[in-house]
Amino acid sequence: AQKVTQAQTEISVVEKEDVTLDCVYETRDTTYYLFWYKQPPSGELVFLIRRNSFDEQNEISGRYSWNFQKSTSSFNFTITASQVVDSAVYFCALSEANSGYALNFGKGTSLLVTP
Amino acid sequence: DAGITQSPRYKITETGRQVTLMCHQTWSHSYMFWYRQDLGHGLRLIYYSAAADITDKGEVPDGYVVSRSKTENFPLTLESATRSQTSVYFCASKEGLAGVNEQFFGPGTRLTVL
Lengths: 115, 114
Known about the structure:
The structure holds two protein chains of two kinds. By secondary structure, chain A is mostly beta strands. Chain A contains no helices and twelve strands. In chain A, strands 2, 5, 6, 10, 11 and 12 form a six-stranded mixed β-sheet that branches. A four-stranded antiparallel β-sheet of chain A has the order 3-9-8-7, with no helix packed on it. Chain A has a two-stranded antiparallel ribbon with strand order 1-4. In chain A, a hairpin with a 6-residue loop joins β5 and β6 (46-52). Helices cover 0% and strands 51% of the residues of chain B. Chain B has no helices and eleven strands. Chain B has strands at residues 4-7, 10-13, 19-25, 31-38, 42-51, 54-57, 64-66, 76-78, 87-94, 104-105, 109-113. In chain B, the strands form two sheets. In chain B, strands 2, 4, 5, 6, 9, 10 and 11 form a seven-stranded mixed β-sheet that branches. A four-stranded antiparallel β-sheet of chain B has the order 1-3-8-7, with no helix packed on it. The A-B interface holds A 31-33, 35, 37, 43-45, 47, 50, 52, 91, 95-97, 99-108 and B 31, 33, 35, 40-45, 48, 50, 56, 58, 88, 90, 92, 94, 98-105, 107-108.
């Protein structure tokens, strides 16, 4: 069963628009970790953020912000004033103790930002 | 160079051949992982290792073998390659005993099995 669901397969926006990438997860653990990674067209995986299950505080980093809500098992990612360089595939991932803290990835959301 | 490296970066092989993908990290991270990335599936865990000589299966381990005799190396072997193993393979490592730390990924190996 898919533990991390990214319902949006592809999103296309025009530069300067705000865009939110959804992530819903499923776990029975009380301690777990959530991540977002970016994969630009060049193919490497770039770490963006980590959240543990005890910290529901939202975070903002420049144009990026993350909304973690345990009540809805969601960890959504918003890019404000998108730029062409934001075009990439974005992965949400869950880390649990019973798998050696390996990452259980969603299938990714491909974001295309056009000028 | 510091970091995590994978070799080869590209590999073409034939069905039935044995192939080994190499992964090396210079941080002495205790945990190492192998993932494969396929269209429509995202990244899936093949094997992971919590320390030297300790390995465990992930979601899609069939057809793969791993070993970890040294902390810094985590080779992945396809014993008899099949076309379904055509994929991009990523190695990753992280420090610590818990999930708190992020994983650092290698650049990937693109494997084609003909």
